[in-house]
Design goal:
41% of the residues lie in helices and 13% in strands. It has 13 helices and ten strands. α3 runs parallel beside α4, α8 crosses α12 and α9 runs antiparallel to α10.
Length: 365
């Protein structure tokens, strides 16, 4: 038996054996300097893996500082550089993506999220990678039941007309590229993270921006909606569980707690000692703000809208999810959302995302 085969786990009869990550295994992570990608990288290092960290050639790499990784400057749109970086790797985590609600040139969403995913899939197959874990998004799932309080699952089929914005549309197409490769025999599985909070959200992501805006007093009110909040480090652990226990071609929601927006804002208030936001805004107000902001700032002035229309639409949608499949099949577990909120608040405060005048008013847990 080869050494690689000897590291494989034992599967039930009829199942494809799943691999076991061993110390020294060469593992590639795309988007390794990003929020989720860097958390995956750290979790791999905890397991003794030899990490090849693919990072944008001119991107922010501070999340990789001090880590014992092999940094490979590689744009996932460049098939040759991806192929070179993945050579000799046993596993791949593909977390690189353009995650946002607006871009001056929307083509970047498709070039990176779809074209880049194709490049990574092809390079992984060519390199003989044993398992690729793709970081998708719960944004590609159907939400027809959530307004009635029924969480969406991996079986919830999306109404494509409700895939608002280029981010969701491009990730929907990319996910089908992954599934197509799985149908052709590629050893891939899909992780669908919910809404992450925690340390090292440098950009910040749209989720982290909610925290930053609250800390800086830019949340005058809220729309009655809900979302699923998870700690980024739990999402990273879920990725490794998918690697070792997931079934090829299968999707897994990796999440945390379903919270109303009012509950989330309450946790933020508790975490920093500020008064809670109590003003409830009509959905029409949020949508109108998005329309005006995107028309004036986005189209007329060519700059990032203060309220992207996709973000406004999301703020009016109940986005609750059931991650029972991951808990039952992978053994996934998550910490309370309060912990994720507190870690996020502490990191943003410690790293200069809060104006000094506001910082003086905070009492951080």
């Amino acid at each position: 038996m080869s050494s690689a085969a000897g590291r494989r786990g034992t599967a039930a009869a009829g199942d494809v054996p799943t691999p076991v990550l061993a110390a020294g295994d060469r593992v590639a992570v795309t988007g390794a300097a990003g929020f989720i990608g860097s958390a995956i990288t750290r979790r791999l290092l905890d397991r003794g893996a030899s990490v090849v960290a693919l990072a944008e050639p001119r991107g922010d790499r501070r999340n990789l500082e001090g880590l014992d990784v092999e940094v490979r400057p590689a744009d996932v749109r460049d098939a040759a550089s991806v192929r070179d970086a993945l050579a000799g790797c046993r596993f791949v985590f593909h977390a690189a993506a353009v995650y946002g609600f607006w871009a001056k040139d929307p083509a970047v969403f498709y070039d990176v999220n779809v074209g880049g995913t194709r490049n990574v899939l092809r390079a992984a197959v060519e390199a003989g990678v044993e398992r690729l874990v793709y970081t998708g998004t719960v944004g590609t799932l159907g939400l027809s039941s959530t307004a009635r309080g029924v969480p969406a699952t991996e079986e919830s089929v999306a109404d494509v007309s409700h895939l608002f914005g280029h981010y969701k549309r491009s990730k929907y197409v990319a996910e089908h590229e992954v599934l197509r490769h799985a149908a052709e025999g590629a050893p891939v599985c899909i992780v669908l993270p919910t809404f992450p909070l925690g340390p090292r959200d440098r950009r910040p992501t749209p989720t982290g921006k909610v925290v930053v805006d609250f800390l800086n007093g830019r949340v005058p009110g809220y729309v009655e909606t809900a979302l699923n909040v998870a700690h980024v480090d739990d999402l990273a652990s879920g990725h490794l569980l998918a690697l070792e226990r997931g079934k090829p071609g299968r999707s897994y929601i990796i999440g945390g707690e379903n919270l109303s927006m009012r509950e989330l804002l309450g946790l933020l208030a508790d975490a920093c000692g500020l008064p809670p936001v109590t003003a409830r805004l009509p959905r029409a107000v949020a949508l109108a703000a998005g329309l005006v902001s995107e028309a004036v700032e986005g189209r007329l002035l060519g700059r990032h809208p203060s309220v992207p229309l996709e973000a406004a639409r999301m703020s009016t949608t109940t986005m609750i999810f059931d991650d029972a499949r991951a808990r039952e099949e992978l053994g996934y577990a998550s910490r309370p959302a309060r912990d994720a909120v507190e870690d996020s608040v502490r990191w943003f405060v410690d790293n200069g995302y809060v104006a000094p005048a506001r910082r003086a008013r905070l009492v951080v847990r």
